[in-house]
Amino acid sequence: MEPVNHTHDSEFLLLGFSEKPEQEIPLFGLFLGIYMVTIVGNLFVMLTIGSDSHLHTPMYFFLSNLSFVDLCLVSTTVPKMLENILMHTKAIPYAGCLAQMYFFIVFTCMDNLLLTVMAYDRFVAICHPLHYVSIMSPQLCGLLVLLSWTVSLLFSLLHSMMATHLSFCKDRHIPHFFCDLSQVLKLSCSDTFINNILMYFVTTLLGVAPLAGILFSYTKICSSILKVPSPGGKHKAFSTCGSHLCVVSLFYGTVFGVYLSSTAHSSWKNSITSVMYAVITPMLNPFIYSLRNKDIKDALRRLISRPTSS
Length: 310
Known about the structure:
The strands form two sheets. Strands 3-2-5 form a three-stranded mixed beta sheet. A two-stranded antiparallel sheet has the order 1-4. It has ten helices and five strands; from the N terminus they run ββααβαααββααααα. It has helices at 24-51, 58-86, 94-127, 132-135, 138-163, 181-186, 193-226, 231-263, 267-292, 294-309; strands at 3-4, 11-14, 91-93, 168-169, 173-174. The protein is mostly helical. Mean pLDDT is 85; it is low at 1-9.
């Protein structure tokens, strides 16, 4: 294929899930519904935590940040997909593709790092309960979130700057519903060896290290819980970790699904599994924490009862 230097008015084509026109309306309705549920669910969690003083603790501070990141993550990909379906086009400008890729990497990294920070919070709460307040101080919580944002923004900026130096071939069809970094690199006619090395390095660093931290934390947590003599104490300790474990399993399970499908070179499977962690997981997280968490449910009741009582 003939290489073409990219310009600011060039475009990529997002192939999405289907090329059949009769399937576009059901897909539009499905993803619009998922998007609205995700927005409302995560806003409810953020509003509930922010308005209830009982939830102004480190665990719920991290949860409110996770809800904000999930809201941003789904807003990075779904609106453009809905616009393309509604306007019967698959085009996304070059600058728009880079911006979408940048923010997708930022919010995906933030999801990953926040889940790790939340695992550390549960580790301190269960394994060192007497020192929990002194260890998980507001300053440390703010520093952990700030550090997560800094790492995510820097790595994403590095990927995006490396991508700006690439030239692309005439075939700019991306077999995905958003501008995924790995798919964009496959369309380049430039040498992408450095880009691929950087992508694998960052994926390993921000994938293996946080997962190892989560597994280490829960190994210590399980060891501490098993030493609790009363069944009631064990149940209470497990219940504080159940929601987070569900979210971690859902996130990493779908991410590994994307990795396995991409190694099998199946673009359709890659898109479907990407939907799971980039769209479905942000939608389910508020329900997992709301339905399994007594504090959140009590705070929701108090929030809803305020207008009624007034």
